[in-house]
Structure formats: C-alpha cells, structure tokens
Write a structure and sequence with these properties.
Blueprint: H1 2-15, E1 41-42, E2 50-51, E3 69-72, E4 77-82, E5 85-90, E6 96-99, E7 106-111, E8 117-122, E9 133-137
Antiparallel strand pairs: 1-2, 3-4, 4-5, 5-6, 7-8, 8-9
Length: 138
C-alpha cells in the first residue's frame, strides 16, 4: 500500500511540476485502514467549545522566504510560495493552481486588499542577472 501511495505522490508532483517537499492531498484518492486517536483542543478552559483539527496545510518556510503565506478569505483560498512557484489552494476542494513563471526562488508574496491581485518577488537574481516581480490577476 505504501508503494502505491508513493507512486501516486510522485505522479501528482510530476504533473504539477512541484518540488519533493510539497504537500499533496490524498483525500478521496485512497482508503487507509489506520486507527487514529482523535484529540481536541479546548478554545477556552471555562467553555465547552473545542477545536477539531481537520486540515494540514504546508508551505516552503525553510528557504529564506518571508511573508509568503496569505489567506484570501474572499475566495476561501490559501496562497503561498514554494521555491519558484506560487500555489493558490482552494480550502474547500483542496484543488490547486500552480503559477510557475520564475526561474529562481520566490521570497515574498503580497495581495491587494480585495484579493484580486497577487504579487510575488524573486529572492535572488535570475540567469538574466535581475530579480523580477510577478503580478497576477487572481
């Protein structure tokens, strides 16, 4: 079963031109027989409200990138950089749009107040000896 999962992961990574450390959702792709102990966190010790973890979302935070994780509440998406890519992930469907226009690592990310424009900046000079800023309509 693990080899099937690794094959699925490798195929998704290759299709989307992602680096090895990117999170790929296996939700609705495979069924696993795993016993999990559900844990909850109390929001307030004096109340009955709890937080139940349901989604793990990852991004590249180890390559010197900064300010590279944005929650777009208008579109219910998370936007982050992953090496030389901008990933826009729908939080309901887990579908991703991958923007791969840079040749080098992207170091920072910003969006317009209404969420319609995303800006990503290269963190180092590219082969043309310049650092580009990419502006995307979202």
């Amino acid at each position: 079963m693990l080899s099937e999962l690794l094959e699925f992961y490798d195929n998704c990574r290759e299709e989307n031109h992602l680096t090895y450390n990117h999170f790929i959702s296996c939700q609705n792709k495979k069924e696993f027989e795993v016993d999990l102990e559900l844990k909850t966190m109390l929001v307030d010790q004096t109340s009955e409200k709890v937080i139940e973890p349901c989604i793990v979302n990852g991004y590249d935070g180890f390559s010197g990138a900064h300010s590279n994780l944005i929650w777009n509440w208008q579109q219910n998406s998370v936007i982050y950089t992953l090496n030389n890519k901008v990933v826009i992930e729908d939080m309901k469907t887990r579908g991703q749009v991958v923007l791969a226009n840079s040749q080098v690592r992207l170091s920072c990310l910003a969006q317009a107040a209404e969420g319609s424009i995303i800006v990503a900046g290269e963190g180092e000079t590219n082969p043309q000896k310049v650092s580009l800023i990419f502006v995307y309509n979202n």
